[in-house]
Amino acid sequence: MGGKNKQRTKGNVRPSSSGRAAELLARESGVVPGFVGFATTTTTEPGYVPAVHGAEEIDNLVDADFRLVLRKLSKRDTVTKLKAAQEFGAMCQERDSEVVKGVLPYWPRIYCKISMDHDRRVREATQQAFEQLVLKVRRSLAPYLKSVMGHWLLSQCDSYPPAASAACQAFNAAFPPSKQAEALSFCKDEVLTVLQDNLLKETADTLSDPQSVPEEEREAKFIRLLTSSLLGVKRLLSSLPQTDTHNLQDRLTHLLNQAKFWKYSRHKTPQVRGAFFEVVSSLCEHTPGLMQTEAARVCPAVLLSIDDTDPVVLPPLWEAVLHTLSTLTDCWSHVNARKAVLPKLWSLLKDGGKGLATALHSNLLPLISKLPTEVTTPNLDFYTTFYSCLIQGLSSERAVSSPSESAAIVVSAVECLRYTLLQNTGEEEEHTRIRTVLLEQQLLPLIDSALGSPSLQAGPLFPLVTDMLVSWEKRAGLQDVGVLSEGENEVVFDRLLADFWEGLRVMLARRVQSDSLERKDLEGMSSLLQVMQSPVSAGRKQTKKKRSVKICFSEPESSGSPEEEGEVALKCAQLEAPELGQETAEGPLKSWHLEEIVCQQAQISYSHVNDKNSERHLVYLSLLLRSFHTPRVFTMLLITSEEEKLKGKDEQKADGGGGGGVPPPSNPAVRFLLERVVLWLGQEDRRDTSYLVEMVFSSLRCCSPQETTRILNHITTMDLKWGVLLQIIQKACADPVSLQACGDWFKGSVLGERLLGLAEELCEVGLKGSGSAPNRDSWALISLALSQHHNNEPLIGAVYVEKMIAKLHATLSAAKGLSERGNLEPLVCFICDVASTFFTSVTHCLLLASAEELLLTVFTLTAQDQTHTHL
To answer: Which portions of the sequence form the region Disordered (predicted)?
Structure first.
């Protein structure tokens, strides 16, 4: 009868003797044995695959609650496994460590299975549960470490980032950083066995049961395993000490001898190809001797794949290309560069990297620096083709639509040009021809195309060219620091500079005189010249990006090197000009060529203004003077003006004189301002005067504060449009330095009386109720004068503020009595707008008696019934 109380087994079958033996061995040694031949593959060390144990063995050795969870982890249902993994982690936190340790003999087999589960949530939860197990058992995991380390490393390379992160977190919880390499070293053979078997023996059908798992799921799992295994090889090599890597040489040789391994370079899945090239880079870095012996396989696999433009593959591929060229001394003997490699490169460059220029083009400079002469000979033909294809990529659809793509191509082109020119600084005829061709057929045409392209103007081209010119000047001895390298001489760089500036001068002269010239061309030319004058201002708008490859040209640069420059947000109209009252900071370029070109451009523009009344050239002249307000430029403009007069082409009389306290016109900037700019400002048919106001302040930057006050007083007394005076005041208030330089003019009687007279005139005209619309610029001028403050004081003299407020109050009071006429609404509205701006902008404004009376009048007016006021 007692037999009925015994625990029953499934099918009423007594556990086999082998099961009891395994149970006994596990209890005595703490290790569950594996069985040779149980796994799908047979190796010399099969112990890394723990044996499967039935539920009856687990029942006898594990806590009842853990027993149930482990059973759930073996189920096929995804939700069941996910909840079981979460429950397992919670139980590891809550239970005593001795209870948790009872699970360890059975954990490796379960972990190795569910860590590769098809569902990413299960994989992530598994790693999180493993972390809790590790935290609880600590050193007790050691006997089982070799059984789990292979799949643990695979999990750290999981294609699902949260799962990989959780695996890494569990690994960090188990081993401090100083012990992680030691732990991998302890298990290196077992780990490499797992990785090799995955790469060489496993298939989609051996990994999953074809009878129960859909084909799509089997294939996805297999692809993920291949990717993780390849990345696992890389991680293992980068983590092991050099001595351990050397000890694995024979086993790595076995891996590299397999044709199946090299076929991964052409695998249909991008993730596998990308991981393969990462492994190649790691092998080149950590086992260069081994890769040299396999050069016949490495070089074709890598170099013949450079046309692979999948976004996942391209970055690791080009890293592998550079590692291959650096590591394998005879790499070009295994491939035909002319027929098999370079044509693919030319096609790729012509298409602008097929939308991947930001990832591809940073590798071009190190690429050409590693090409041997047998590949580039004849050098002139090679470089001509290379740069033609590279610059042609700027016209690709993706580069035209993407500023970042365009900027990457530009940066690469200038970097490579700079490097190539530095490599050909000899006196030999070939070097001279290469310099001439690259300058005249590549660099200057690139600049020329940018002058008509707003997108290229907004890119890094102009700052990079300026930095290159500074570098040449240093080598030519024009800078304070000479940086000549061995084999270079100053004459070569002198000639380079002269040829560049002459080519640029001819190009700009041709453009500025073209009949088809557009405003964007003029803005492009002024942008180029201004950046050359002040690249620091342009550099403030640049966004620096980290680059994977940095090249040093062996010269001390005071500013960021072009290799570190990213995209430049530079608009011509937004270029920063020196503030009023400041001396122009000397630009980084020391030669006289830049100012010479500016003088020529200014003279040509002035002639077009006089001969053809070209407003575009007048705008261009204003932009030039904004950055180049030097005595020489103004002197050349005056010489051109005198020449025009002598030819009888300037019939207008100069109005520059001695009235209004104007100083003698000995200062060329003052003379140009009074003789030409003021006349242009006074033209009745000129609608836009903002660029002329810019020209006024460009001239004032060459004047002392006293001269500035006298000149502005003179302009104030002239019969100019009120909108012009409004623009001048707005420009003077644009920055603190200009405001300080114009302070005496603001506080002076000339401006105060002029504004007071304007206020009286507006009020008188408004009270007449003529019905004509008031001048908005005039009222805006009054509002600005009253509301603008500096250092807690009114912008204009306080006495004039008082008088203007009193006049507005008197006018508003008079308007109340005349409101029945019904046509005073525009006047009242403008006065109320001015009053609102004044009261909201000026602190302590009610200290003025007239201001308090004005506020009371406005309040009384708004409180009245509209039927009585007719407003």
So the answer is: 1-20, 646-667
Q: Which residues contact 274 (CB under 8 A, 6 or more apart)?
A: 310, 312, 313, 315, 316, 317
How far does Cα 370 stand from its chain's mean position?
27
pLDDT-wise least confident of 301-310, 551-560, 600-609, 746-755: 551-560
Find the largest Cα–Cα distance for the chain: 137
Q: How many CB atoms lie within 10 A of CB 46?
A: 16
Among 376, 374, 441, 442, smallest CA distance to 414 is for: 442
* Amino acid, single-letter form, for residue 633: V
Dihedral (CA of 237, 242, 248, 249) sign: positive
Please tell me whether residue 483 adopts helix, strand or coil conformation: coil
Query: At residue 450, what are phi and psi to the nearest 5 degrees?
Result: -70, -30
Copy the structure tokens of residue 485: 């390298």
Picking from 198, 125, 202, 113, the residue whose alpha carbon sits closest to that of residue 160 is 125
Show the beta-strand stretches assigned E in 657-801: 789-790, 793-794
Long-range contacts: 22-29, Cβ < 8 Å, 24+?
22/51, 22/53, 22/57, 23/57, 23/60, 23/61, 26/57, 26/61, 26/105, 27/61
Task: Kindly report the backbone phi and psi dihedral angles of residue 865, in degrees, each rounded to the nearest multiple of 5, phi listed first.
Answer: -70, 130
Spatial contact of 774 and 830, defined as CB atoms under 8 Å apart:
yes
Tokens, residue 432: 């001279």
H/E run at residue 542: strand 542-543
**Residue 293, C-beta contacts closer than 8 angstroms, at least 6 positions apart:** 253
Rounded Cα gap, residues 369 and 71, in angstroms = 60
Least confident of 268-282, 417-431, 551-565, 824-838: 551-565
For residue 183, what is the enclosing H or E element? helix 177-186
Tokens of 155: 């999990």
CA 536: distance to chain centroid?
18
In three-state form (DSSP H/G/I as H, E/B as E, the rest C), the secondary structure along 407-461 is HHHHHHHHHHHHHHHHCCCCCCHHHHHHHHHHHHHHHHHHHHHHHCCHHHHCCCH
- pTM for this predicted structure: 0.79
> Please, are residues 116 and 190 in contact by the beta-carbon 8 Å criterion?
no
For the stretch 89-98, pLDDT in tens is 999 999 999 9
Cα dihedral 573, 578, 584, 586, rounded to 10, equals: -70
DSSP state of 223: H
Q: How many CB atoms lie within 10 A of CB 477?
A: 15
**Which of 847 and 62 is assigned the larger pLDDT?**
62
Q: Judge whether 784 and 836 are in contact, CB under 8 Å.
A: no
CA dist list (Å): 679 to 332, 544, 673, 675, 742: 71, 45, 9, 7, 22
Residue 495 half-sphere exposure toward CB, CA atoms < 13 A: 14
What backbone torsions phi and psi does residue 169 show, to the nearest 5 degrees?
-65, -40
Asked if residue 573 has pLDDT above 80, the reply is no
Phi, psi of 160 (to 5 degrees): -95, 105
Tell me the one-letter amino acid at 25. Answer: L
CA distance 524 to 580: 25
- Torsions phi, psi for 542 (to 5 deg): -85, 150
